[in-house]
Amino acid sequence: MFKYYITRFAMLIPKLMVISIIVFIGIQMIPGDPVTRTISPEVYAHLSPVQLNELRQELGLNDSMVVQYLRWLSGLLRGDFGYSLVTGGKISGIIASRLPATFELAFVSLIFATILGLLFGFISAIKKNTIIDYTNTVLGMIGISVPPFFFGLLAILLFSIYLRWFPTGGRMGYGHVTFFARLKYLVLPAFILGISLIATLMKFTRGSMLDVLSKEYIKVARSKGLSEIKVNLKHGFRNALIPIMVVLVMRIPMLVGGTVIIETVFNYPGMGSLMVSSISGSDMPVVMIGTFIMTSSVLLASFFVDVFAAIIDPRIRFGTDAGGGNGK
Amino acid sequence: MKKMLLTAGLILLLSLSVFASGNKDSGKAAGAAVDYNETGILKLDWHSSIGTDSLFECPWVSEGSLYPAMLFDTLLQNNNDGTVQTPRIATEWTVSEDGKTYTFTITDKAKWTDGTPLTIDDVLFSYNAVLKLPKSPKKGNFKNVVGAQDVIDGKADSVSGITVDGNKITFKLTQADNTVLSGLFAMMQILPKHLLKDADPATLASYEPYWTKPVGTGIFKIDEVSFPTYFTMVRNDDYFGEKAKIKHVLFTSHQVGGAEAIISDVIAGNLDYVYGNAINDINTAVNVLANNPDMKMRLFPGGYQRKFMFNLVGSQDGKYNDDVKKQEVRQAFRLIMDMKSFASLYPGQGIVLTTFVPSDMSKYNKNIPLFKRDVKKAISMLKDANFDFSRPVRILYYYGDQTTKDLMDILVQNFADAGVTAKPFLATGDLASIIYEVKNYDMIYLGGGGTHYILQYGALEPGSAFDKILGDVKYRSVYTDLLNKYKSTNDPAEIKALGDKIQKEAYNYAAIIPAYGLKEIVLYNAAKLKIDDRIFNGIPVNNYHFANWELVGK
Questions:
Q1: Residues B534 and B486 in one domain
Q2: What is the DSSP-derived secondary structure letter of residue B138?
Q3: Between chains, do B53 and A87 touch, taking CB under 8 Å as contact?
């Protein structure tokens, strides 16, 4: 088993190398001059060709692409991410302030989504074909189909501007720096970010629960005279949870990706919004590092999905054909 | 099941009530003697052209934020109209008879907020270091300083025309220049040599040991910094000038959410004073006022203008319409475009322009007839100039807002009225390269300005990247001659005559056509903040008079 995990982890290294090459070449292929892209037309109007060349020299842009890549890669391995073309500051410093914010948002969102998705899915299953079930199903469809930025704007209007329950945006405010003080800044973006996951989890929980509740052992439990709540929770929900957890873990990378829009709507300074501003500001060194980190995170999450799947389903780690049994 | 639902509902309600409590008042009744200046916080937007992730913006590179005006000092202080200067770090100054030598005496009372006294070395250091920053627009103010160009070109380490004697610093100019007081000496922040001397001159603006928490001599000092979200300033009780009444200032970043986030926060009452691009459209500002009655709007002529500039050189793609090289064609285009409609897109804010100088100002050349659209005459002029009506005119613009798109729609119709096909297109991405190198356009719609309206004609002088668009450097040196004469005289009649001549020359040449001026907008919370009204006598950035700002409510 341990060998399986090591092998999966070792496979990450060539994947990361390929990603680094793709990211680097992809960015280099963007048309235009990396220097002029970051300078406003007004400032450019006052720069001489000599000064422009000095800027290029200083940023190492006059070297060949291979030299630039190797320099970038060696910096990456040493933890030296270079400097932002726009701010002039160290990219590592920028990432250090943005990455925890995104993880925090994604984590809180995951908690919200898990609790609510499981709860609503569970209720829908045990109240199958009732008004509650239909309502949940319709709400779930809305949650999946309506874009999150729309919910975000609506939430700001209602809860921040009219009711003034929550801040309009940001990650923290003056005097609100501890995690618990910052929670009020997280509620709206985390909930909105999680809406789609809530709907997905609700759908899967309902299906999985209904599947389990139709099994023979549930009928046996009922015939033994166990209370309905015990049958549903202890025998139904627990057994239904296993496939749901796989779905949940597999959705984590999508959650991180979803932060790009939500962070912008809620003025939340995380990696997603950093990527948006860096791309629009043509800050390519930041875009490169940001893309690399985001893709690496997804790769790492996929690794954990593999690990998790292997833990709950031994057929995977032994490479057995999935069609060989029901696994129960 | 009902119990479960009830419990879940209660938990949700409890959570909401806990989180929701933060934005409301604490509930304590305000006593009659509450001094809001001591207890309250002035809330401002932290705007920065370099983002708010890891460093403060260096005021030598960009002055987007209000913070430099609070943290740093200059030799002199402009009045809001930009014409009268008063002492600041310089206690007094003299100008030689020929107008070529300026000598300043430096105060011995100013201290950096780390406790170190400000010295003449800081001033000398600053006036040399700014020239070594590749992206500093302030270098333009040094044009007539002896030896400044050598430092810019890397041929010298220090400016030969700036010398120090005791606590006096002297600037020698190559020619008399009456604009240096308001520009070079009143708008150039002095930075601390002792904290920046180890920085690489070319990257001084991003020197981390300093720009993560800069030290100044100003009326406020930086207190707490939390990148990328906010920072606070507190009153500098050791300030050598008049001290501020307000004790605490909070700057909150809206870098991520942009204009929408700023507007949301203004409506929600989380910003007390806002200005700049986010609200500099009267339609947006009026919407904000409708949603937050505490906010008050002030408009002032900040000198900002939108213009059309012709590409007189050619394009890379070979589709250039070389008819725009003809002066008569450009003059005809001016008669085709409905500048009044353009200005009316900003009701109460837009100003119709004929030259760069607004027509209600004394500097306006009254011999130039005020703008009047005349399509018939334009068509006749175009025919006389053998204009090819079958070729489209490509117009580049780079503002993505809806009002600009509406303006372009009007423009297309305007040209269609004269039988000319206008093809506007929005440029995005590497703008500097698209505008100055690729140049696949015949006209460009751009913005810029300044309160010294005649000096805006400097855009026509040779020596900038505009050379790549306007060409004909030989002819354009006429503007250099005229502007040099304009800047070197103190005779009001001569100033007026030269200003008129420059306007007339540029009006006839028609390489840059002013479209409209835009008054600038400030919104502030009148229920909480009392600002010094003098800031609207010209432009606020010239002198914010922070010492007179007061918090009068929560």
A1: no
A2: G
A3: yes
**Least CB–CB distance from B229: residue in A165, A172, A184:** A172
Mean pLDDT, residues A281-296? 85
Q: What is the pLDDT of residues B60-87, one digit of tens each?
A: 988 768 999 999 999 999 988 877 788 8
The answer to whether B512 touches B307, Cβ cutoff 8 Å, is yes
Closest-approach residue (CA) in chain B for A86: B50
Task: Write the residue in A36, A88, A174 that is nearest to B55 by C-beta.
Answer: A88
Co-location of B165 and B293 in the same domain: no
Say if the Cβ atoms of A168 and B265 lie within 8 Å: yes
Q: Give the pLDDT of residue B4.
A: 53
The answer to whether A170 contacts chain B (CB < 8 Å) is yes
Q: What is the CATH number of the domain that holds B147?
A: 3.90.76.10
Q: Which fold has domain A100-317?
A: MetI-like fold (1.10.3720)
Residue B182 lies in a domain: yes
Are the beta carbons of B547 and B241 closer than 8 angstroms? yes
What is the ipTM score, two decimals?
0.72
The pLDDT score that the predictor gives to residue B62 is 81
What CATH code is carried by the domain that includes residue B376?
3.10.105.10
DSSP B134: T
Q: Say whether residue A182 is in contact with chain B using an 8 A CB cutoff.
A: no
Q: CB B533: neighbour CB atoms within 10 A?
A: 10
Evaluate whether residue B224 is within a structural domain: yes
Answer yes or no: do B264 and A187 touch at CB < 8 A. no
Tell whether B308 and B293 lie within a shared domain. Answer: no
* Alpha-carbon distances, residue A10 vs A13, B181, B296 (angstroms): 6, 66, 62
Question: Do B111 and B46 share a structural domain?
Answer: no
Higher pLDDT pick, B143 / B277: B143
**A&B contacts, CB < 8 Å:** 189
How do residues B416-460 score in pLDDT, each as one tens digit? 999 999 999 999 877 888 899 899 999 999 988 887 899 999 999
Two tokens at A139? 């709400």
Instruction: Please give, rounded to a whole number of angstroms, the shortest distance from the CA of A306 to a CA of chain B.
Output: 33
HSE-CB for A202 with a 13 A CA cutoff: 28
Apex B216 CA angle, B165 and B144, nearest 5:
50
Can you give the pLDDT at residue A8?
Answer: 83
Instruction: For tokens 């925090």, name the residue.
Output: A104
Rounded to 5 degrees, φ, ψ at B325 are -70, -20
CB of B364 within 8 A of CB of B532?
A: no
Give the closest-approach CA distance of B439 to chain A in angstroms.
13
Q: At how many degrees (to 10) do helices A148-155 and A179-213 cross?
A: 130
Domain annotation covers residue B360 = yes
Cβ atoms within 10 Å of B166's Cβ, excluding its own: 8
Q: Does pTM top 0.90 for this prediction?
A: no
Q: Find the CB nearest B255 among A90, A174, A277.
A: A277
Contacts of A172 in chain B (CB under 8 A): 226, 229-230
A86 contacts B54? CB cut-off 8 A: no
CA pair distance A189, A199, nearest whole angstrom? 16
* Shortest Cα distance, chain B CAs vs residue A165, angstroms: 4
Determine, for residues B51 and A282 on separate chains, whether the beta-carbon distance falls below 8 Å.
no
Q: Which CATH number characterizes residue B13's domain?
A: 3.40.190.10
Whether the pLDDT of residue A328 is over 70: the answer is: no
Residue A246's pLDDT band, with cuts at 50, 70 and 90, is: confident
Inter-chain residue contact A174 with B232, CB threshold 8 Å: yes
Q: Which residue of B has its CA nearest to A54?
A: B134
Is residue B176 domain-shared with residue B190, that is, in the same domain?
yes
C-alpha B417, offset from chain centre: 36
- Contact list, B54 vs chain A (CB under 8 Å): 84, 87, 89-90, 93-94, 97
